[in-house]
User: Fold this.
Amino acid sequence: MSQRAIASDSLRQRIYLQLRAAIEQGSFQPGTRLPASREHARALGVSRNTVLWALERLQAEGYVQARVGDGSYVADLRTLQRSPALRPMPVAGLSRRGQLIADTVRQWSPPAQAAAPFRIGAPEVESFPFAVWDRLARQASQAQRVARAQYLDPAGALVLREAIAQWLWVSRGIRCEAAQVLVCSGSQQALDLIGRLLLDVGDEVLVEDPGYPGIRASLLGHGAQVRPVPLDAEGMAIDEAARRWPAARLAVVTPTHQFPTGVHMGLKRRLALLDWAEAHRAWIVEDDYDGEFQYGTHRIPALCSLAQAQRVLYVGTFSKTLHPGLRLGFVVLPHALAPAFAMARALADRHAPGDSQEVLARFITEGHLLRHLRRMRELYPQRQRVLIDALAEFSGGALQLRPSEQGLHLLYELPAGADDQVLTRSAQAAGVLVAPLSRYAMVSPRRGWLFGYAGYSATELRSAAHIVGPLAANALKSIA
Assistant:
């Protein structure tokens, strides 16, 4: 990096820290309208882009709220002050990038407890065929075990990469070779590698708003400028994003089943997104987090399956299809990028465990993955129906969720700008988890409640609905 680039990075960081300190210390009171970025830059004697970078990071961290057409306002930090562990604090000795990573607790605090209703993102684990998995593991010979105990290919075991490539063609319509598949420790590591290899500090990245906080946290940890793009009935509004941020180098999307709203990106929008990437020499990251869970007659193919998808990096995970504890995922790369990604994987943690890779390869090739998914595709719609009926019953008909032919959770959307945190707090006090849609938004005014159903039995779902139903009915009365 040039001395000029280092100086620019340092100046942006300094302006950001000064503004954050002023907000934390009360110099800027909650609700205060901040000066326009152009005026602020002129007063500080810096470029407008420097001020915009600082404001956007403060906005992403929750210190500042942007109101469309009305400027930026200081957020109310009283809720943060009640939870000091959630406040980003300078850590002595960390580099600037290290501090960015330390601050991600404000962006994303991954759950470490066992899943409980109605937490989203949790698959059914008790039905996983552990006996089959154990049998496959025991069938390895002594020579095979000795071979797996050595240092291995950082890109992943060839037998597993071949199995994944074959599976993707059959299941998601993606034509790729084993040489394009990189085995990762779940999708989050894939996103981290993409950020490290394809982005420089200050690069702009388009993300869906609302969207997955783990993506934003990873990007911010790499010093990227995260640009929130609104969603419409077709998903990410790429034409609007291209006009607002023509310098963006990467876009992260969930086109098959947008997280968390469930919108499906149609062919016209997909082609527009691919055209944008080609015209701007940008990359698209397709996060297909739950693409295997489609319950209708017709399956929606992956964006990466289109002929024009040469600039798409496809990220998949076995955390949803099998179980999160497996910690195996993958990314499908253009041939030219594969060697660099494998070396970056080697620098991070050398390679994935050999035994797990070999067993997973056999689990796929011998048909166990397909059989397991068939069972889950039958089970999950049943649980979805239990959730819908139970919440309608126990809310006295006030809470009517719409069924979906995809995914592991349902969204009940509220009027834009409504307070969706009230139900979250009352449900949590009663021992039930209901995520508010606002938790996944950056500037979007969309609000609502998210109900996970896949990982919970009918009894658990009804018990949780018995608690949440009346609370939701009361919340809806106050919003109306």
Summary: The radius of gyration is 23 Å. DSSP finds 18 helices and 13 strands in the chain.
